[in-house]
């Protein structure tokens, strides 16, 4: 079966001032698959994932060269609507960051910003997003409660529901479970598995077993370079590069 | 992985090598006990049955512990998976050694039908295969196992040649039936040990290269088609 490419990274380089943080990155991210980025701290995986929806634009002294092609255009090209890019390529962060509002309002926030009006329409979006984020059973009878009253794992799934409400194509997750307990982690992992039926997911994780469990493709990064990028089974069973083997076996990093 | 993992991992490999040495020694000594009518040696082999079973359990426990505690990947994972299979194959080899020693005991005091040459030669081929597999495991080097398919063919052909030789003796002289039936059984045990060495080869190959291979699949396919009939007989038909 031919895999469709969702994002294509071509010769991407990024500098924070004089620090060359990403070096000649080339990779294709496949549609409706989970791609994991692994590597030791400071290797550039979070920088790379932030490139996918141009979040590095807000960093001072950040310079990007190369291309990330999405829907036949370079998202770093001239005339690209960054707001549209970030709408279509949503991000979930390491620490759950719900707004200090009700559960309902958190999910309805994005659609309201986009001009969706009418309770019926908003209800439909909120209900669907919360169901898709596997949170319905736990919150359907308390939508008006504060989002801050939820547990860490529930808050993270609420953030996922908030992202889903604006119907993105690609979901970026930057260590989405590192602040969660094992049960919440397992729920998020199950959710990622479900999400890939509809969305392309890119996940940064420090947890090697998590990358092995949830992803279809894995990229190992080191000192700003993509050392090896392949099918996850291959990376964890038979990596080509000695450095990858040493890292995933826990012998450095 | 930390030092504790490295230490336990190395210990696991040593445990497999120790088990391999003992199983191979049991097989070798069992055939020598048969050849020389040596009841003492046969008793020694039989006495090691419990030790083999204990080693089998210890390796399994250690391997499962490493998998659970450290969730190894890549070469570490392949090596532990290999250890978990090798202990089973080696336990079988050890048990066949014990079974052959029991044959020695059953034939106590009986003179051999003729000079026992083929069975010890077959045992030599099989123990060489086992030793080469253990060498490959220890040194992470598959070069000594490249010709296992041909070597296993030699073992299989010897088994059928012993079978035919014994059949002739039994037809000639019915008083040899008990002894010859036992020789046929021993040849069968040795042939199975050769198969186990081939299975070890497959697992060690995967451990070293990450690639799965099948040793002697033609033989397996042909025998399966014939419901277990010897391949050579099939070719002769």
Sequence of secondary-structure elements of chain A: EEEHEEHEHHHHEHEHEEHH
Could you name the CATH topology of chain B? Answer: Methane Monooxygenase Hydroxylase, Chain G, domain 1
Q: List how many beta strands of chain A DSSP finds.
A: 10
Q: What is the averaged pLDDT score of chain B?
A: 91
Q: What number of domains of chain B?
A: 1
Q: Could you explain the architecture of this structure?
A:
The complex is a heterodimer of chains A (253) and B (237). Chain A has 253 residues and is an alpha/beta fold. Chain A contains 10 helices and 10 strands. Chain A has a domain at 5-97 and 167-248: 3-Layer(aba) Sandwich (Rossmann fold). The radius of gyration of chain A is 18 Å and the shape is globular. Chain B has 237 residues and is an all-alpha fold. Chain B has one domain (3-230): Phosphate transport system protein phou homolog 2, domain 2 (Methane Monooxygenase Hydroxylase, Chain G, domain 1). Chain B has helices at 3-36, 39-47, 49-70, 74-106, 118-139, 148-172, 177-209, 217-225, 231-236. In chain B, helix 1 packs antiparallel against helix 5 and helix 5 packs parallel to helix 7. The radius of gyration of chain B is 19 Å and the shape is elongated. Chain B starts with a helix and ends with a helix. The model of chain B is unreliable at 219-237 (pLDDT under 50). Classes of the chains: A alpha/beta (253), B mainly alpha (237). At the A-B interface, helix 8 of A face helix 4 of B.
List its traits.
heterodimer; A: 253 residues; alpha/beta; Rossmann fold; four-stranded antiparallel beta sheet; 10 helices; 10 strands; 26% strand; B: 237 residues; mainly alpha; Methane Monooxygenase Hydroxylase, Chain G, domain 1; 9 helices; disordered C terminus
Give the SSE layout:
The complex is a heterodimer of chains A (253) and B (237).
Chain A: E1 5-16, E2 19-30, E3 34-38, H1 45-51, E4 62-70, E5 73-74, H2 82-88, E6 89-92, H3 103-113, H4 119-132, H5 136-139, H6 152-164, E7 170-174, H7 182-195, E8 200-204, H8 208-214, E9 217-222, E10 225-231, H9 232-237, H10 242-248
Parallel strand pairs in A: 3-8, 3-9, 6-7, 7-8
Antiparallel strand pairs in A: 1-2, 1-4, 4-5, 9-10
Helix pairs in contact in A: 3-4, 3-6, 4-6, 6-7
Chain B: H1 3-36, H2 39-47, H3 49-70, H4 74-106, H5 118-139, H6 148-172, H7 177-209, H8 217-225, H9 231-236
